[in-house]
Amino acid sequence: RQAAYAELRDVEPFTRCGTRITVMMNAGLRDDMSTLPLSGADGVGLFRTEFQFLVSSTLPQRERQTRLYRDVLDAAGDKPVIFRTVDIGGDKAVPYLNSAIAERDENPALGWRALRLALEREGLLKSQARALLEAAAGRTLNVMFPMVSEPWEFDDARAVFEGQLEYLRGRRKLVPEVINYGCMLEVPALAEVMEQMVERASFISVGTNDLTQFLFAADRANPKLAERYDWLSPAILRFLARVSQGVVGHKVDLAVCGEMGGRRLEALALLGIGYRRLSITPAAVGPIKELVRKVDLEEITTQMTEWLLRPPPNMRAALQGWAAEREI
Ligand code: PEP
Ligand code: MG
């Protein structure tokens, strides 16, 4: 099968009905970039910049950050990369930044983390913004903010980037040709103000790992809760379907970048509720491209619409049966 996926590397993932699906990969290390050409992914839909912060015992110097981001862009060549600003705090504790706070955080996943932390530690976000702007000088910069819960957080984070951009321009430095700002949708509250986000963001990427834990109030890292929710549950699928309906008619790219998108039946369901962009673990790119090529979008959309109105007793079994009948 590996050989079959290798053959698919340069094959573009068009559905049976001829729609191009964007299949990107998630990354977080310089070394991950070697899998970009090997996997045949369309780009990096989520680059988790916090890895550099997590493996360091001190706050990474701006020059080190710039070097990493530049290397990543060089390795990606013509393919796009979406850099997510640091998502530290919560379960990704960094001793040099938030130990005192983390001790006080009774619910770290709901606590002082990600953009919440970055907006307060403005020096940290400023230095990351500058590093990203410098690394992408003369190219396109795609930057994404994690854990946005309300539109103002997106505005404030963007303003930090714009401030750094002005600073660089003032010094006659080369800046990115294009900057696209986007956000993660992983806090359910943000979905309730989608109409405000579609006006602001160039792209929105649904982080189903966190979104699921928040929707079900079930810690994603607790193995005792692992059986308590299913990505194919009607609750999640209906939620995701509403999100995808919310971007119809707007110039915003909607993607899923959680682990869900890398699984066969889950990806099938996502296609059926309007998602056309996935960013997934590199190993899943081949299998998902293969799946995409067998799917007729109209057929799965009709089926999912029906199933979301009247959920079958077991959505997983229903999808499995549907796929098997079509030799998908
Ligand atoms: C997510 O929450 O789905 C996500 C992609 O981000 P992370 O797994 O890094 O929290
Ligand atoms: Mg997340």
Structural overview:
With 328 residues, the chain is α/β, with parallel strands linked by helices. The protein is 49% helix and 12% strand. Strands 7-6-5-4-3-2-1-8 form an eight-stranded parallel sheet. The structure holds phosphoenolpyruvate and magnesium ion (MG). Magnesium ion binds next to helix 11. GO terms for molecular function: kinase activity; metal ion binding; phosphoenolpyruvate-protein phosphotransferase activity. It is found in: Cytoplasm. Keywords: Cytoplasm, Kinase, Magnesium, Metal-binding, Phosphotransferase system, Pyruvate, Sugar transport, Transferase, Transport. Belongs to the PEP-utilizing enzyme family.
H/E series: HEHEHHEHHHEHEHHEHHEHEHHH
How much of the sequence is in beta strands?
5-15%
Mean of pLDDT: 94
Q: What are the low-pLDDT stretches, counting only 5+ consecutive residues below 50? A: none
Structural class: alpha/beta
Number of helices: 16
Amino-to-carboxy terminus distance: 15 Å
Biggest sheet: strand arrangement: 7-6-5-4-3-2-1-8
Ligands in the model, by name, code or SMILES, are: phosphoenolpyruvate, magnesium ion
Computed over alpha carbons, the radius of gyration is 20 Å
Major sheet attributes: 8 strands, parallel
- Estimate the helix proportion, in percent: 40-55%
What's the shape?
globular
- Total strand segments: 8
